[in-house]
Structure formats: C-alpha cells, structure tokens
Write a structure and sequence with these properties.
Blueprint (H helix, E strand, L loop, with lengths): L2 H13 L9 H8 L3 H8 L2 H36 L6 H8 L3 H7 L3 H29 L3 H18 L3 H10 L4 H27 L9 H21 L9 H12 L5
Helix pairs in contact: 1-2, 2-3, 4-5, 4-7, 4-9, 5-6, 7-8, 7-10, 8-12, 10-11
C-alpha cells in the first residue's frame, strides 16, 4: 500500500467516527502511521482536506440511503411475492432504481435476502439491553413484560411485509445458506434473551431454579405462535387484554419474588 493509499484509508476510517470538520492532519497521520506533513502533502492544505472529507461523507450518505431503499423494497417484494417469485428486477423497480444499482450493493437475490434477514433480526437484538433495563427498573414488572411482548410483535409488524416476511425466512430455510444465516442470527437473539433472564435472576426478580435458555425459547416460541395466529385470523388477535393475559401467565410461571 502506498503512502497515499494509507492516508486516504485512514481519513475514511476516521470519517466514520466523527464529523468531517473536526478531523485534523495529526489524527489522520497517527491512524496511517505517517508524519503529518505527508497528510498535508496529499491533501494540499486543511481547507482542501475538509472539502474532500465533506464530499466523501455526502457520498457515503447517499450510498447508505440507496442501500436502505433496496432493503425496504426487498422486504416488500419478498413478503408480497415470496422468495421464489421475487427478483432483483422487481426489487429495483419497487425501489425506483436500476438493476445495476441493486447489483452494486447485492451480488444476487439470495445475498439481498440474507441481508434483510440479518437486518430484521439484528434490530431485535439491539433493543434487548434497553428492554432488560426497563423490566428491571419497573414498579410493575408484569405490566412491563406485557408491554415488552407487545413491542416485540409491533416491531415485526412495522417492518415492510412484517409477519409474512418472517414466514418467508422460515420457508426459505430449505436453502443451506439461508438456514445457516437464520440459525446464526436467531441464535444470537435467543442468547441475548437468555442473558436478560439471567440478569433478572441475579437481581432476584425471577426464580433462580429456572433454565434461562429454556425460558427464552419458550417466550420466543409463544411470540412466533402468535404471529401464525395473527396471519390466520387477525381479528381474533387484536384484543387489548391479550398481551396482558399472556404476560400474566408467563410472569406467574417465572415465579417472581413476592
């Protein structure tokens, strides 16, 4: 790698961590492992460097926006048409982009499908720490649990295609790559939920004799079963007391501290 390549790579890396107008020659030089004068030589001056960084940041923002448009359109197409009948041509049309733009981000239909799968499940995983904290600090943990259960379903429902997309993930797991990715990402969610149960046990909020992994699997299975019921007959699944009732059953099974 040339000195110029090192400088540019270091500048882009730092740009992902802070605003362009706060980056200095010294920071880039340290990251690149070169003297600061080498950075100035390649950019020509602080103003030129900031202009380059600003343009690069805008370019990356447009790149991210395009990728998001493709993911959202892909969610809709896979949910509406199914994996077998969807295509990158249809995704491109739904996103208002050319097929070439889609291929720039995703090499194949399966590549896009796997990215959507990971994006959907990772979103659930990112929410777990905050949800754990709310359960631990709630004055009424049973009500907090009901709200958490409802939030899990609403998160799925808000996604383009929601529950139908979830079923498409399951149905398409006949393909080895899809099955592997589904197992990998879903496993992280189960592990995260298990850690949440363990934290509740350490706080004395639920019985220490319960197996956290078994509890997280049971709750996950209940939520997935609810999704199936909702797909069959939404009208029967819209009772305001539904999640409160489920939470009550679960909370008593968790043997909370009195």
């Amino acid at each position: 790698m040339t000195v110029r390549d090192k400088v540019m790579a270091a500048a882009e890396k730092i740009l992902n961590m802070k605003p362009y107008d706060q980056i200095t020659f010294a920071e880039i030089a340290k990251e690149a492992g070169v003297h600061w004068t080498a950075v100035r030589r390649h950019f020509g001056g602080k103003r030129q460097m900031r202009e380059w960084l600003k343009a690069k940041q805008a370019e990356e923002s447009r790149f991210a926006d395009t990728r998001t448009r493709i993911l959202e359109a892909g969610q809709r197409m896979f949910a509406e048409l199914g994996y077998a009948n969807a295509s990158l041509d249809k995704v491109a049309a739904a996103a208002g982009l050319t097929k070439g733009a889609v291929y720039w981000h995703f090499s194949s239909k399966q590549d896009l499908f796997l990215a959507i799968l990971e994006h959907s499940l990772e979103k659930q995983l990112r929410q777990l720490p905050g949800q754990t904290e709310r359960l631990l600090s709630a004055d009424d943990p049973e009500t907090a649990l009901a709200e958490w259960l409802q939030a899990q379903f609403e998160c799925l429902e808000r996604e383009s295609g929601g529950p139908r997309l979830f079923l498409e993930f399951i149905a398409s797991s006949r393909e080895p790559d899809v099955r592997m990715k589904l197992r990998e990402v879903h496993g992280r969610i189960i592990d995260g939920a298990s850690a949440m149960i363990e934290e509740l046990q350490r706080k004395g909020a639920v019985s220490a004799r319960l197996d956290p992994h078994a509890v997280s699997l049971a709750i996950d299975a209940l939520l997935k079963g609810y999704v199936v019921e909702w797909l069959i007959d939404p009208g029967r699944c819209e009772s305001k007391s539904l999640f409160r009732t489920i939470a009550g059953l679960l909370w008593k099974g968790l043997e909370p501290r009195k």
